[in-house]
Amino acid sequence: MTTASALPVLRRLSLFSALDERALAAVAERTIPRSVPRAATLFRQGQPCEGLYVVVEGRVKVYRSSPDGREQVLHVMGPGQAVAEVPLFDGGPYPASAQAVEDSRVLFLPIDAFRWLYANNPAVADAVIRELGRRLRRMVRLVERISLKDVPARVAAALLDYAEAAGALCDGGAFDVPRTQEELASELATTRESIARALATLRRTGTIRQQKRRVVIGNLARLAAVARGDRGA
Description:
With 233 residues, the protein is of the alpha+beta class. The chain has helices at 3-11, 21-30, 86-90, 111-120, 122-148, 151-165, 181-187, 192-204, 220-228; strands at residues 32-36, 41-43, 51-57, 60-65, 71-77, 82-83, 97-100, 104-110, 174-176, 208-211, 214-217. The strands form 3 sheets. A 4-stranded antiparallel beta sheet has the order 1-8-3-6. It has a 4-stranded antiparallel beta sheet with strand order 2-7-4-5. Strands 9-11-10 form a 3-stranded antiparallel beta sheet.
């Protein structure tokens, strides 16, 4: 990937959207393109932070592992999204691991280059703060979802999030679920079978229609009620 081809990828990233063309070109010149095959690890939890990754193609999951080997998926990042912003600022190690879930291409920005960018472009600091705020809110929702809700409510709430992100939060709204059932089960701390049963119930009640990953909201009010844990929905 050349500097010119990296520019549109970086321009879509919220971290760099406020940069002028000269600053953005300076970022692009400092990035290193990498091909990452499926199941390859970008970094592991606890390793020293080496830099920032931007997904160009494919998907990368960010997860934490328990001592007994169980995974909790925190994010699944797709094209135009950044991975590993937090340790760039606090100087600590990577707080989670990252692995490609399909053949992917990424841009890698070394930590020294990012620090140069941060020091010379205050707009980047503002963008990072906003992005970290969004991540924190998402993590709060995820913790609430796992600790306070049963599996059908977790699944319904996740579908509402995906619909909102796709601008499809309405009756008849259609969107693609950006997770496999296995990935969704890992993210929602349950099993694939439980995810399948919850989706089947939502289809049977007409709350959603589904064809593979494509979901159409049949009844938004009922889906929201299930997400709240209203068993009478």
